[in-house]
Specification:
Distance between the termini: 134 Å
Number of strands: 55
Shape: rod-shaped
CATH topology of the largest domain: Immunoglobulin-like
CATH superfamily of the largest domain: Cadherins
Strand content: 35-45%
Radius of gyration: 63 Å
Largest sheet: 5 strands, mixed
Strand order of the largest sheet: 1-2-8-7-4
Oligomer: single chain
CATH architecture of the largest domain: Sandwich
Helix content: 10-25%
Number of helices: 8
CATH class of the largest domain: Mainly Beta
Number of domains: 6
């Protein structure tokens, strides 16, 4: 039968109405619908395409523990997910509804939905007892009224009790009254005077009928006993007593005092005050009636939010045997006070938000309620102002927490948000509620090197595969977004990729040399290092590593002038008339190293006559220290050592032979003049001619020998130059007081010396030559420094 009634109610009330009022969608459905019953089409009412429900992350949010409603995302239909019992959900409240919220993303939207639950007649009325006993005196006049026990019906509205009926009889009728709260009560009417002698008892059937379709009912038996005697009933001063009382009064506070009088005398006039059966147990716990004085006092805690008015049915009963009674009502109006703090209900849409979330992203839905009335129930909310969030108030007492700024996980990974709500009382009541929102990481930070560029000083002749340096980069992001990988960018050095010289450990940034470096071939090079994180898309940064090769003293000095053969050189013919300080020759040496490793010094190790020559310690100039003597030998041999200033010191030695030719031109001239004057030509002249001729042939032989030797040396030097790869032979220019130290190989051309005629040439038939300046390779000087040839 219940299913049949429910089906009939569904046929009548299953007309769901969607109405957008203040951005709220409203539906109405009857209770007790089966699972899957249609409620409404959310997609149509929101003017959305069905495919948008999934793409915009459609969510149905309910404040109830049970999920009474659900939405089919394939067609947008809102349907019943679990059977709804209106009486269990809302009790005796005249209105009953489910509050839902619809959340959408992109853009963020919140739509409140109210589903009104309509009552169906699924409960039958019931009496607390099946039989009631009512004593009535026979002398009571007709039209007397006797309150009857009311039936109870959990349904509301038209489905609750609508009428009472009594079984047909000639003495009694029924009077149905509507109470202030809309409920029905029944009174038994005496329509005809009673005669106990004719009939002392009556058995009547009382029927309570509700207004549902179909109607439901219940019955109770009323057993009436006719009493004899007492002819006057008690009468109250007022038909209705009214009282106003504040809800937070103390226990024992007097509400009102009732008073009734009985015209009878003796025990028939003694009255006892009490509540009638219409007063519920809950009311009896709140109010206490003194049976003698008629004072009604507060004995429980009154709550305006529970009930705004209390209707108490009071009777005054005689102490006589027939116990006649008088009846009245006491109406107690409760005055509201600000005794309730606001209630906050926070529903987190998401407990975590990406740090690149756009402003306006919905974080939480907040519902605020205050049971108080008027200004007491007007609630305001706020959050701290120093966080990138704000509250929006699309509907009264409904807020949504959205982002209102740029989030940065590296600055603030978690926000502890406290929401404060306060009402309009004086003083106001407030409520605070706190929750946490974490910020999830996105790859918004590129790796940062500790320096934009690094200088690495590496000694040449290093060990291959050894670590030469380590770069380090930091990334403020987390997990994979902060995982750094190092790599070399593809720049080239000497037509080779950087990877041919160095490699880098992709995990820790250690840089390793793949070969041994030679300062004389490569003095510095540059590495571009990239640090890239593991985000998607990845971010990267670069740093420059300048590798500076440091010189090591690994090259011995090389003597380039004069030309040597097997570390031996034969040079110019020295005139016998040289004076102290006379420059014989300048030793020129070069060192492929640089700095102190290429700073050269010259030392005379061995000499045929140590007193005849001196060598400049830094200049390498060989000068005469005195005049030649007749006893000096014709050939002088010098052993020179050239050393650099490195650690350890490296050196080279050479042997230079000087041939000293006796200068006889002046003497021959003088003797010729003497001979002419004396006109005498003897044996002495012949000796002189022989000596002069021998000397001439010897001089020519020496010149031819030197020319042949020079040609061989030039050929050897040219062949060596073709085998060398370095093009940085001369990268160091000497100071004004420093000897020329060439840092590269000798030129492939022959050396040229600038010579001047000796003064002795004018006194002799022979041509004597002397250097105009310390002997230097002419081609080299012309190409490097014009000042060196002046």
């Amino acid at each position: 039968m219940a299913n049949a009634l429910m089906s009939g109610a569904s046929f009548i009330f299953l007309l769901c109405v969607s109405d957008l009022v203040s951005e709220q969608i409203r539906y109405s459905i009857p209770e007790e619908l089966e699972h899957g019953a249609f409620v409404g089409n959310i997609a149509e009412d929101l003017r959305l395409n069905v495919w948008e429900l999934s793409s915009r992350n459609f969510r149905l949010i309910s404040d109830h523990i049970k999920q009474y409603m659900e939405v089919n995302l394939e067609n947008g239909i809102l349907f019943v997910n679990e059977r709804i019992d209106r009486e269990q959900l809302c009790g005796q409240s005249s209105t009953c509804s489910l509050s839902l919220q619809i959340a959408l993303d992109n853009p963020s939207e919140i739509h409140p939905v109210a589903v009104k639950i309509l009552d169906v007649n699924d409960n039958s009325p019931s009496f607390t007892k099946s039989e009631f006993y009512l004593p009535i005196s026979e002398i009571i006049a007709p039209v007397a009224r006797f309150p009857l026990e009311s039936a109870l019906d959990p349904d509301v509205g038209t489905n609750t009790i609508s009428s009472y009926q009594i079984s047909p009889n000639e003495y009694f009728g029924i009077n149905v009254q509507t109470r202030r709260d809309g409920s029905k009560s029944a009174e038994l009417l005496l329509e005809k005077s009673l005669d106990r002698e004719q009939q002392s008892t009556f058995n009547l059937v009382l029927t309570a009928i509700d207004g549902g379709i179909p109607q439901r009912s219940c019955i109770a038996r009323i057993i009436i006993t006719v009493l004899d005697a007492n002819d006057n009933a008690p009468l109250f001063d007022h038909e209705v007593y009214r009282a106003n009382i504040v809800e937070n009064v103390a226990k024992g506070t007097l509400v009102t005092r009732i008073n009734a009088a009985d015209l009878d005398e003796g025990t028939n006039a003694e009255l006892t005050y009490s509540f009638t059966n219409h007063v519920s147990k809950r009311m009896r716990e709140l109010f206490k009636l003194d049976p003698v004085t008629g004072e009604i006092r507060v004995q429980g805690v009154l709550d305006f939010e529970a009930s705004k008015v209390y209707e108490l049915d009071v009777q005054a009963v005689e102490n006589a045997l027939d116990r006649r009674a008088g009846h009245t009502k006491v109406m107690v109006d409760i005055i509201d006070t600000n005794d309730n703090a606001p209630e906050l209900d926070v529903t987190l849409v998401s407990s975590a938000v990406r740090e690149d979330a756009r402003p306006g992203t919905v974080i939480a839905l907040i519902s605020v309620t205050d049971p108080d009335s008027g200004e007491y129930g007007h609630v305001q909310c706020q959050i701290p102002g120093n966080i990138p969030f704000k509250l929006e108030n699309p509907l009264r007492n409904n807020y949504k927490l959205v982002t209102d700024g740029i989030l940065d996980r590296e600055m603030a990974p978690v926000y502890n948000i406290s929401i404060s709500a306060w009402d309009g009382g004086s003083p106001p009541f407030s409520t605070d509620k706190a929750f946490s929102v974490s910020v999830t990481d996105v790859n918004d930070n590129a790796p940062r090197f500790t320096q934009p560029s690094y200088n690495v000083y590496l000694m040449e002749n290093n060990t291959p595969s050894a670590s030469i340096f380590a770069v380090a980069a930091l990334d403020a992001d987390l997990a994979q977004n902060g995982k750094i990988t190092y790599s070399l960018l593809g720049n080239k050095m000497r037509e080779l990729s950087t990877s041919a010289y160095v490699m880098i450990n992709s995990k820790n940034g250690n840089i390793y040399a793949l070969r041994s470096f030679d300062y004389e071939q490569l003095k510095h090079f540059q590495i571009n290092v990239q640090a890239q994180d593991g985000g998607s898309p990845p971010l990267s940064s670069t740093a420059i590593v300048n590798v500076i090769i440091l010189d090591q003293n690994d090259n011995a000095p090389v003597i380039v002038s004069p030309s040597t053969w097997n570390s031996t050189a034969s040079v110019a013919i020295v005139p016998q008339s040289m004076h102290p300080g006379y420059l014989l020759i300048k030793i020129i040496a070069t060192d492929a190293d640089s700095g102190q490793n290429a700073r050269l010094s010259y030392q005379l190790l061995e000499a045929t006559d140590p007193s005849l020559f001196t060598v400049g310690f830094l200049s390498g100039e060989i000068k005469a220290t005195r005049h030649l003597l007749d006893k000096d030998i014709m050939t002088e041999r010098l052993v020179l050592c050239v050393k650099d200033n490195g650690q350890p010191t490296l050196s080279s030695t050479t042997t230079i032979s000087f041939t000293i030719l006796s200068n006889v031109t002046e003497k021959t001239y003088e003797r010729t003049e003497t001979s002419r004057q004396s006109e005498y030509f003897g044996d002495l002249n012949r000796y002189l001619i022989i000596i002069l001729g021998s000397t001439t042939f010897l001089f020519l032989g020496i010149i031819i020998f030197l020319v042949v030797l020079k040609l061989k040396q030039d050929s050897t030097i040219a062949e060596n130059d073709r085998r060398r790869n370095s093009t940085d032979a001369f990268n160091r220019r000497p100071g004004p007081n420093e000897p020329l130290n060439y840092t590269g190989p000798a030129q492939t051309q022959g050396y040229r010396y600038t010579m001047c005629l000796s003064p002795e040439s004018s006194k002799s038939d022979f041509l004597f030559l002397k250097p105009c300046h310390p002997t230097l390779p002419f081609n080299d000087l012309a190409g490097r420094d014009t000042n060196a040839t002046k």
